[in-house]
């Protein structure tokens, strides 16, 4: 899988081509907005929806019909979030993942429509949580909450940071919450893994906390936090580093992924979290999509192929807890709004061949967001709306 500078320059412009060649040179300061989306992305969405172009319009229609993107949404902030029943406290994390989905959906709706009412509502949600939330607890599942919802909240705030009616002191308070509540848990998990053996936790646990760490670093202009996350992606000891997520490369270019023998619901969750991580880094001019000969693509193509009903090679997976001699068919065909991001990057932008990724994106189009895939946490593990936000042409 390769692409020439000459061809890339013709198709996407010299500035992006230069970003591919020398990301470290261009990343001396953070791009804002620059987590999952840049201003150029929002300009594209706004223009295409205004012209009723497809498939952006279908993606837009899914967004505006979602109750999380409504002006009637009312936040429900909590002082403490509990994920995993600890024997005492009732789990309440659903209020956080619903409000995070709403903040993001409303922020998108503002950026595309230009209607400040949606910006005011998005900011109201973010302010409610920054004034209230002091911690996250529960069982070890608390580290899933710190990762998934930390990434989502930071992304919503990154979109809203330029809103003229979000006062600087309120933005600062939100950043402080992210730095005091979410980042320490992200760091603690990746360093100590809750006191467990290094290979105990599945890849999605690492990837969630890596993604939150990266998003918080961008939002707070903290290069040390951002660099910590990128270093873990490249060389981390746990299952979220790229050589452990995609741990077995086959001669046909497919890459077996760490949760393939577990179930396909979690295997496709890895697509969501890995995609978010690579996209945020890309928007800061770090090409982790292409890292180690497009290793992420090899894993995503493997997951897409199997979940479309095709056979894939499989090698017995073992760690200190399990031995899995066969690939799991549990949850096969799982539907998540995760494919457009990878499809548009690898196939549309870079011109690489990924037939199963293409088919998965086409099958899932238009992608919705939180609330479109059921009421449980799995439907909110990814922000979604990829047809609107990631379609390039």
TrEMBL record:
Molecular function terms from GO:
lyase activity
Q: Which SUPFAM superfamilies match?
A: Chondroitin AC/alginate lyase
User: Where is the signal peptide, in residue numbers?
Assistant: none
* Record bears the keyword Lyase: yes
Q: Which InterPro entries match?
A: Alginate_lyase_dom (IPR008397), Chondroitin_lyas (IPR008929)
Which residues are listed as membrane-spanning? none
In this chain the Alginate lyase domain maps to 75-307
| Keywords noted in UniProt | Lyase, Signal
Q: What is this protein called?
A: Alginate lyase family protein
Species of origin? Dokdonella soli
The taxonomy runs: Bacteria, Pseudomonadati, Pseudomonadota, Gammaproteobacteria, Lysobacterales
């Amino acid at each position: 899988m390769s692409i020439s500078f000459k061809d890339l320059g013709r198709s996407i412009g010299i500035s992006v081509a230069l970003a591919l060649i020398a990301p470290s040179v261009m990343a001396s300061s953070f791009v804002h907005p620059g987590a999952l989306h840049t201003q150029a992305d929002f300009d594209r969405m706004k223009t295409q929806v205004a012209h009723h172009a497809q498939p952006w319009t279908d993606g837009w229609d899914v967004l505006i019909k979602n109750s999380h993107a409504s002006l009637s949404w009312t936040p429900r902030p909590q002082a403490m979030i509990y994920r995993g029943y600890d024997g005492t406290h009732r789990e309440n994390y659903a209020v956080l993942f619903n409000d995070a989905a709403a903040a993001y959906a409303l922020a998108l709706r503002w950026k595309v429509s230009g209607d400040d009412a949606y910006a005011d509502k998005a900011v109201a949600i973010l302010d409610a949580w920054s004034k209230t939330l002091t911690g996250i607890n529960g069982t070890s599942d608390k580290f899933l909450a710190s990762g998934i919802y930390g990434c989502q909240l930071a992304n919503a705030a990154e979109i809203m940071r330029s809103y003229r009616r979000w006062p600087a002191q309120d933005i600062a308070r939100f950043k402080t919450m992210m730095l005091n509540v979410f980042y320490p848990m992200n760091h603690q998990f990746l360093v100590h893994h809750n006191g467990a053996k290094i290979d105990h936790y599945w890849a999605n646990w690492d990837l969630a906390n890596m993604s939150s760490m990266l998003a918080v670093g961008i939002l707070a202009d903290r290069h040390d936090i951002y660099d910590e996350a990128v270093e873990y992606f490249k060389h981390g000891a746990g299952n979220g580093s790229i050589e452990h997520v995609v741990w077995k490369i086959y001669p046909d270019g497919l890459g077996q992924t760490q949760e393939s023998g577990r179930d396909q619901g979690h295997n496709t969750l890895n697509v969501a979290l890995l995609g978010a991580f690579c996209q945020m880094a890309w928007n800061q001019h770090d090409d982790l999509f292409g890292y180690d000969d497009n290793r992420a693509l090899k894993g995503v193509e493997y997951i897409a192929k199997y979940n479309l009903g095709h056979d894939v090679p499989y090698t017995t997976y073992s760690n200190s807890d399990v031995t899995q001699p066969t690939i799991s068919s549990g949850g096969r065909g799982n539907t998540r709004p995760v494919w457009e991001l990878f499809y548009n990057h690898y196939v549309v932008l870079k011109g690489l061949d990924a037939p199963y990724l293409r088919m998965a994106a086409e099958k899932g189009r238009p992608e919705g967001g939180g609330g479109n895939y059921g009421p449980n946490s799995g439907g909110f593990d990814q922000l979604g709306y990829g047809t609107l936000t990631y379609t390039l042409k």
